Inverse folding.
C-alpha cells in the first residue's frame, strides 16, 4: 500500500518549487491534495497535471496572509475530499534582501504574516477536522538560515525561529489528540534557486560543493519523501522533531556575508 493512501492533505504554496514537489510526491503516495496557492495560473497548472496523472487534486486560491482565506482553504478540503489528515505549511512571501538596519517594520510584518501567522491560523483551522479523523500530521517549514544568522534575512530568520517554537508547542499540547507536529529545514532547487543560478554563473556548482552529499536537492525526489514519511504511519511515534533535509549543508554551514560589506563600520 502507498504511504498516504486515502489521506487528504493541504499544502500551502504548492504552485511551484518545494511545495509543488511535495504535492507531486503526495499524489504518487495516494493522497488527495489541496493545492493552496496564491497564483491561479501556477496552481491550476499543477492540479491539471496531477489529475492527468490520475491523482486527486484541488486548486484553492489562497493568500496565506489572510486569516479567513486560510480558514476557507481548510474547509475546502473537507467539502471536496471529506476531511483533512495532513497540513503542510510551506508558503511565504519573501521581502527584499537588505541589511537588518534597512529592513522596515512592513517587511517584518509581511514575513511574520505569511509564515508564523499563516501557520498559526492554518493549524488552528485544521485542528477540529483532524480531531474528527482521530488524529493527523502537521509539517512546518523551518530554515537553516536561522541557525547561521543568514545575512539580509533578519525578518525571515526571526519568523522561522518562531515556527520552530510553534511546532514544539503544538507537538506538546496536541499529542493528546493524536496529532503529530514536526518541522523540516529543506534546501532544494526551487524557484529561488533557479533564479540565482540564472543570474550568477557557477552558483549551482558552488551550492552543490557546499554539501557533504555533493549535490543540490530535487523538490519532489529529495524533499517530498521526507515530508511524506512525517505525514505517514511510519512516523507515528515522531513528534516535536526538526529535520534538516539539505544534503548535509547544516554540518559545515555557510558564510552568507555579502562581499561588499566591510568588517568595521564605526
Amino acid at each position: 500500500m502507498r504511504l498516504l493512501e486515502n489521506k487528504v492533505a493541504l499544502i500551502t504554496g504548492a504552485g511551484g518549487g518545494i511545495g509543488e514537489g511535495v504535492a507531486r510526491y503526495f499524489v504518487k503516495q495516494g493522497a488527495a491534495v489541496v493545492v493552496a496557492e496564491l497564483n491561479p495560473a501556477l496552481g491550476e497548472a499543477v492540479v491539471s497535471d496531477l489529475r492527468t496523472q490520475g491523482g486527486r487534486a484541488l486548486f484553492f486560491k489562497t493568500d496565506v496572509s489572510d486569516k479567513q482565506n486560510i480558514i476557507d482553504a481548510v474547509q475546502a478540503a473537507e467539502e471536496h475530499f471529506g476531511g483533512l489528515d495532513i497540513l503542510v505549511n510551506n508558503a511565504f512571501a519573501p521581502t527584499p534582501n537588505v541589511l537588518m538596519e534597512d529592513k522596515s517594520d512592513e517587511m517584518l510584518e509581511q514575513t511574520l504574516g505569511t509564515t508564523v501567522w499563516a501557520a498559526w491560523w492554518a493549524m488552528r483551522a485544521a485542528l477540529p477536522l483532524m480531531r474528527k479523523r482521530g488524529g493527523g500530521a502537521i509539517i512546518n517549514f523551518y530554515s537553516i538560515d536561522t541557525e547561521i544568522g543568514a545575512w539580509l534575512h533578519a525578518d525571515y530568520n526571526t519568523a522561522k525561529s518562531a515556527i520552530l517554537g510553534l511546532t514544539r508547542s503544538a507537538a506538546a499540547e496536541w499529542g493528546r489528540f493524536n496529532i503529530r507536529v514536526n518541522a523540516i529545514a529543506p534546501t532544494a532547487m526551487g524557484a529561488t534557486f533557479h533564479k540565482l543560478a540564472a543570474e550568477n554563473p557557477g552558483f549551482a556548482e558552488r551550492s552543490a560543493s557546499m554539501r557533504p552529499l555533493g549535490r543540490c536537492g530535487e523538490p519532489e525526489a529529495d524533499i517530498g519523501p521526507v515530508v511524506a514519511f512525517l505525514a505517514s504511519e511510519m512516523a507515528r511515534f515522531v513528534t516535536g522533531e526538526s529535520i534538516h533535509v539539505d544534503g548535509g549543508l547544516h554540518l559545515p554551514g555557510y558564510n552568507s556575508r555579502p562581499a561588499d560589506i566591510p568588517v568595521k563600520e564605526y
